[in-house]
Write a structure and sequence with these properties.
Length: 270
Amino acid sequence: MVVDCVSNMILQDGQMVDATTVDIPQNAVVIYDVLRVMDSVPLYLEDHSERFFKSFLLSGREKPFADSVFAENILSFIKQFGLKDGNIRCVYSIAESTQFLVYEIKHSYPTAEMYAQGVECGTFQGERSNPNVKQEAAVKTNAYKKIAETGVYEVLLVDMQGNVTEGSKSNTFFVKDGTVITALAEDVLCGITRLQILDIIRELQIPLEERKISLDEIAGFDAAFVSGTSPKVLPIRAIEDRKYDVANPIVKQIAQAYDAQIAQYIQEHK
């Protein structure tokens, strides 16, 4: 049985099967992606497809099938399962044999209160061995343990040089004197939401810096937010004992623009 699956059916290599009959071997190499479905539309499907196959390239593996197969499987699962809203996970597992799975996973979307009041985050010493490969990693498991132990919404990863890179399941942005600051692309898993937000920031002509961010300097930032499939653009109220302005106008402007972009995407792909 696939541990994180919450649907009673799984699309396995193009065929819908009973979820209880499917398993991912413990020794399998797992390359995956997570998509959000809104009003039966998988958001930014084309971008997710590109990132999924990029993970194979960066990990030195051959592309397992054509781009069209990825999209067809995602759309087939949504249609056959009748999913209207939620998160789906697509997994390519490599062991003695390979399989491509698509199934629904548990989701936790921020509440209206979280968007209004912001969330608390912690920090965690850890870094992905290959940040741009969407592959299961021990650092993610350990970060999730700290989240469970401390009750924070997210933990921000700090590398061996003392730089804040990204969240365990999100990307991180800071605001200082009207400028948005975020980590270098090569140091993080470049989430699809992150890419969309960077485009929005440029379109809005908001000053942007992509650079190393020392843990020591984040106390001096005005505002901060995380981005991701589930949170979209979510203000940070505090990182441990450092407080931030959740009503920062730049954060609000970016969040509103991203929500409008999602609405337009859904309208165009229904």
